[in-house]
Amino acid sequence: MDEDWKSLYPFRSHHLPLDAVRYHYLDEGAGPVLLMVHGNPTWSFYWRNLAVAFRDRFRVVVPDHIGCGLSDKPQRYRYRLDQHVDNLVQLIERLDLRSITLLVHDWGGAIGLGAALRVPDRVSRLVLFNTGAFPPPYIPFRIRLCRTPVLGNLAVRGLNLFARAALTMAVADRRRMTAPVRAGLLAPYDSWANRIAIQRFVADIPKTVGHPTWQTLQAIEQGLPALADRPTMMIWGMRDWCFTPVCLDRLLESFPDARVHRLEDAGHYVIEDAHERIVPLVESFLADHPLRDGQQGT
């Protein structure tokens, strides 16, 4: 494993005890809160470029979901969407985060927006990247293959094919995925046991109404209009075969006033493809929608 990735992750680790497991998070800088929530199969490393760019003037908090990144990876755990939402709400409340600007990607959208609906008085602005917060209108064939009982488990947990394939399939410009970046994205997922959450996230994509997470996603989508008065920006890599523009359009039904940036030459890992362009877009959005007096966060 290429250890050079650690130079790309110049952060101090923190852990929040959640019952019998430890929930890892970054807590960098001071000022208004930027809470960044990752998806699958990434971890807080995915947000590194934004964390470095903003920590000089914001408080940047970036958790790793249980089973992901540097968080504990219990083999007997309830790896469901509503549990991840519960965990994030606990982090928000126990760190007493307020006036949050919530940045989300992939599964982080459902988790982060689900948490925002639980503590709406703590969330002030939203930035959404290639995500969804609704029952899936489709499940791509490549992901369906990873859900098959035996072969899917072997592929995802035995061979790490889900995370490895994303290194090329989730970006538009493969040159962006240097050896240290690839090593960093894969680093926590180095064994069968440590890949459990990758497989469980795949299994938690609901195909039918009877799946427990279908109801959770449906409730989140129905609640989204309650957040629509928050300043919202969507930045979308348009070369995403998973969260296609169909997902962007569906989110816009709930956030019709959102500022939208469509990046035609970026893929699902939109921040890997385009972080140099994304940082100024986020800076401009935050400047155009300043927090009111008394909303400066903690």
| Main β sheet profile | 8 strands, mixed
Q: Helix coverage percent of residues?
A: 25-40%
CATH architecture: 3-Layer(aba) Sandwich
Low-confidence stretches: none
CATH fold description: Rossmann fold
* Number of E-state strands: 8
Strand content: 15-25%
- The whole-angstrom Rg is 18 Å
The global form is globular
Mean pLDDT: 95
Describe the structure.
There is one protein chain. With 298 residues, the protein is an alpha/beta fold. Helices cover 38% and strands 17% of the residues. Helix 2 crosses helix 3. The longest helix is centred in the C-terminal third of the chain and has 19 residues. The protein is globular. The mean pLDDT is 95.
Please describe the structure with a list of short key phrases separated by commas or semicolons.
single chain; 298 residues; alpha/beta; Rossmann fold; eight-stranded mixed sheet; globular
Task: Give a short overview.
This protein has 298 residues and is of the alpha/beta class. It is built from eleven helices and eight strands.
List the helices and strands and how they pair.
Layout: E1 13-18, E2 21-28, E3 33-37, H1 48-54, E4 59-63, H2 81-94, E5 100-106, H3 107-118, E6 123-131, H4 141-145, H5 151-158, H6 161-169, H7 179-186, H8 196-203, H9 212-223, E7 232-237, H10 245-254, E8 259-263, H11 270-288
